[in-house]
């Protein structure tokens, strides 16, 4: 079976790169540097459904992206979460947070209206993320 990204994730994000297990996406909301990891395995909705053989890679990739986003942004705090209430495909949010950001100290979900990146800014951040995630 071929991996298919949920249409809502496709509509709301830019693709950064594929790691060995997960596709890394950039949420199209410039208020928060925000990545999303999606395991490229069909039919996954919750953490416990990730195959034992994939679990170590899944957690390592979440750590890798978290560390890269923190280095790149200098975030004060990283929020890492897998909700899946609106999008049934398993995906993990890694959100760089800053004291005084648009939602601080509340969660980013449901806070205000997303502010899309202009394409050049999105491209620059995507390239920076790719470099941070290399290796």
TrEMBL record:
GO terms for molecular function: catalytic activity. SUPFAM superfamilies: HIT-like (SSF54197). Transmembrane segments: none annotated. PROSITE patterns: HIT_2. Residues 35-104 form the HIT domain. It holds the Pfam family HIT. This is HIT domain-containing protein. It comes from Parvibaculum sedimenti. The lineage of its organism: Bacteria, Pseudomonadati, Pseudomonadota, Alphaproteobacteria, Hyphomicrobiales.
């Amino acid at each position: 079976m071929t991996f298919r990204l949920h249409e809502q994730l496709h509509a709301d994000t830019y693709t950064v790169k594929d790691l060995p297990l997960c596709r890394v996406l950039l949420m199209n909301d410039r208020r928060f540097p925000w990545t999303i990891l999606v395991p490229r395995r069909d039919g996954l909705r919750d953490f416990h459904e990730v195959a034992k053989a994939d679990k170590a890679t899944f957690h390592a990739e979440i750590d890798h992206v978290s560390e890269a986003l923190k280095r790149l942004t200098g975030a004060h705090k990283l929020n890492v979460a897998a909700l899946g209430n609106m999008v049934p495909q398993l995906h993990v949010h890694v959100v760089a947070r800053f004291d005084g950001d648009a939602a601080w100290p509340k969660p980013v979900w449901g806070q205000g209206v997303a502010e899309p990146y202009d394409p050049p800014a999105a491209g620059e951040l995507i390239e920076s993320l790719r470099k941070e995630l290399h290796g």
